[in-house]
Design a protein that fits this description.
Length: 182
């Protein structure tokens, strides 16, 4: 298991180095407020990022959404995606999957808040046809810790000179999670 204290320190250093200034961190009460609005708890590492590093504004490429606040936030994006998904004939956004970063072109990085390690998923809706939304979900990383380590090392699929072949595994639980009611 990674030393989460060290990880948080390294994320802070890289974020400050890249951005110069970061938004203020979120108070613990705001994390509780966000969890009430969402209806589920955040994985501990994600909560710590918001409480100890900043309220978004750091991370890969387009940076993490703020948790709460003005404009586009993780909480607002989740509630909007869930609302739209539930009003469609075929659900496309599962409960408990929090969008944390917008990659553009409809793609999101999202944390499965029901998974013990906070798996990071990629939602890539562009090639989906005939409401086969389970085909839009991929596992970017089995844990938020690993996802952050990949960002810190500069080896993410989104990096210009990344070594990987870019093939992500489909999220095997997508179909079951999308078919759940509520």
């Amino acid at each position: 298991m990674a030393d989460v204290d060290d990880l948080i320190r390294r994320v802070t250093v890289k974020a400050l180095s890249a951005e110069g200034r970061l938004p203020p961190a979120v108070e613990a009460e705001k994390v509780v407020q966000a969890e009430k609005q969402l209806g589920f708890p955040l994985p501990p590492v994600l909560a710590r990022l918001y409480r100890e590093v900043a309220n978004g504004g750091f991370g890969p490429e387009y940076q993490l959404f703020p948790l709460l606040g003005e404009g586009r936030t993780a909480v607002r994006a989740y509630l909007e995606e869930r609302s739209m998904s539930q009003s469609c004939d075929a659900a496309f956004w599962p409960a408990g999957v929090l969008p944390i970063l917008d990659w553009g072109c409809g793609m999101y990085a999202a944390v499965d808040c029901r998974s013990s390690e906070g798996a990071v998923l990629l939602f890539e809706p562009n090639p989906v046809h005939d409401d086969d939304w389970h085909l839009a979900w991929f596992v970017d990383s089995k844990s938020l810790v690993d996802w952050l380590e990949t960002w810190l090392s500069g080896e993410g699929w989104y990096e210009e000179d990344a070594d990987g072949d870019g093939d992500m595994q489909p999220w095997e639980m997508a179909g079951a999670r999308l078919s759940e009611a509520g």
